[in-house]
UniProtKB/TrEMBL annotation, chain A:
Residues 1-22 have a biased composition (Basic and acidic residues). It comes from Streptomyces candidus. It holds the Pfam family BPD_transp_1. One of its GO terms (biological process) is transmembrane transport. The chain crosses the membrane at residues 36-57, 95-119, 131-155, 167-186, 207-232, 267-286. Belongs to the binding-protein-dependent transport system permease family. Residues 1-28 are annotated as: Disordered. It is found in: Cell membrane. It comes from the Bacteria. GO terms for cellular component: plasma membrane. This is Cellobiose transport system permease protein.
TrEMBL record, chain B:
Its main location: membrane. The keyword Zinc does not apply. One of its GO terms (cellular component) is plasma membrane. This is Cellobiose transport system permease protein. CDD domains: TM_PBP2. It comes from the Bacteria. Keywords: Cell membrane, Membrane, Transmembrane, Transmembrane helix, Transport.
Amino acid sequence: MSTTAVRDEVRAPRDLKPERTRGVRKAGRQRHAGKLTYAILIVFTVGSLFPLVWTAIAASRNNTRLAQTPPPFWFGGNLFKNLEIAWTDANMGTALLNTAVVAGSVAAGTVLFSTFAGFAFAKLRFRFKNLLLLLVIGTMMVPPQLSVVPLYMMVAKLQWTDQLQSVILPTLVSAFGVFFMRQYLMEALPIELIEAARMDGASSIRVMWHIVFPAARPAMAVLGMLTFVMAWNDFFWPIIALTQNGSPTVQVALTGLGRGFIPDQSVIMAGALLGTLPLLIAFVLFGKQIVGGIMQGAVKG
Amino acid sequence: MSSPSSQSVKVPPSPSVEGAEGGTAGPGAEPARRPSAWRSRRYRWDTKFSPYAYVAPFFVFFVAFGLFPLLYTGWASLHQVELTAPTDMNWVGLRNFSRLMSDEFFWNALRNTVTIGILSTVPQLVIALGIAHLLHYKLRGSSFFRVAVLTPYATSVAAATLVFVLLFGRDYGMFNWALGMLGVDPVDWQNGTLTSQFAVSTIVIWRWTGYNALIYLAAMQAISPDLYESAELDGASRWQQFRHVTVPSLRPTILFTVVVSTIGATQLFGEPLLFSGSAGATGGSDHQFQTLGLYLYEQGWVNLHLGRASAIAWTMFLILVLIGLVNWLISRRLTKSEKGSRS
């Protein structure tokens, strides 16, 4: 059975699209959008995209042009020059590589550990299960700032300042991820499948590998993407644990651009563009899946 | 410990398991059965302990980097600790807290956090609800719209804020230029109290409205069409349908987004930090948009008082608990009154 087949089968009761169109025709509810709807949506979309486009426009100009009115509305010829300056001045090469390592490890760790724990919470029975689950849910809402001082003390003591593990390890697991995977596997994974495998004498690792992981794959992909975006954009803890000239992530490097002694706004914009571009490309490629994941998580949560 | 867990994972009697059971019962049986006895014991251990092995990695990291630091923050808030020597802790009791209570910058930060929180959360959720409603129509290119409204979510706080600093620039910013076209005098966004808070809120609204719209959209799609059908039969207009069917059905989702956005607003940090440009962590020359999160950072990592930073963190925690409590009370009252009106 291919993954898509599993996904369709698994989502069938949840996937509201066919249901909706049917019900709609009956109820006459899902009307086609009028011109005004399109107009408002287009205005909103332009508002959503404009600051990003203008980042690129500003990055392609120079500082003098940005200090004139009216502001530029079209691209100039300095884009690559500015990108190059931002690249060297803000340590952008290192920063991008570091961020990829951090976001990649955090996403991989979160997905892996959340799938294991989410599966246990969804389908297995063990002592203190409910208590532990309550603990997971309770901590979902605790902001990271509350633990930042002791974390800093730990990092300082271990001499991890400016080393990537200082930002990877504290975010390697996520309560949200565990909850997300649990909610998905509750419905996606028929208990009979596990029981049948158990009956055949399959060890729990084999069950995990051959049954749970294939069934969880769509949710794992979604969780991985969401976590990657979050880790890529993480700001508060990295600017405490890392320094601009040592081993920064993109966000840390950007604060250096914004606050440093280079007041060249077009270079700052070029840096912002560089730091955002990888995620924008990912959005162009996987936007639909990310949207689907957020919407799916919303219904479940 | 054995009985609930071993019974609960229902292992249907399979030939191999049964045979093995016999093997353990009679240890003096044929040696040929031994391996299967060992296998069955391993099997039982496996079912019994694998759940713990599955949740263990999560809880190890969670305790080390989540629970322990959270509690230790409380401990540290009762000490004087300097950033330069984080391991030297002097007990000062509640002095960090009493200092905080008499610190005008703390109250200023608290006030700003509340104002920016309201300025950013309310419009964000209202607009999101409207956009979700529009996205719920049958649309050409609906997936384009959905991805497009989500792109700000992919933009980092740092990148977004740096752009908005330029757009809100007093002399050459786009917004003042547009206002100028309308005949309005340029606004000094950064230095005014309300204007700067408005500007900071705008960044938050820009980044999160589309995300919330998608969450509302998902909830709208889960509303049964029958409800609309009967509303229509009763002659309800579109607006009345939105008001009396959509919004009540969305109530749990709305409450959820309110809680999440409130928590987000309480920890607001990156936007005000970078919006002040070179002014650092003060949140503007006059602290006019310094939030609690920024104030915590300033106390800990600019003024080097980690103890005081911990006290701020715990105060934030208490505020969050309070908000959670209020929310819980409101939602309980809402569900109660709903039940009352239905019966």
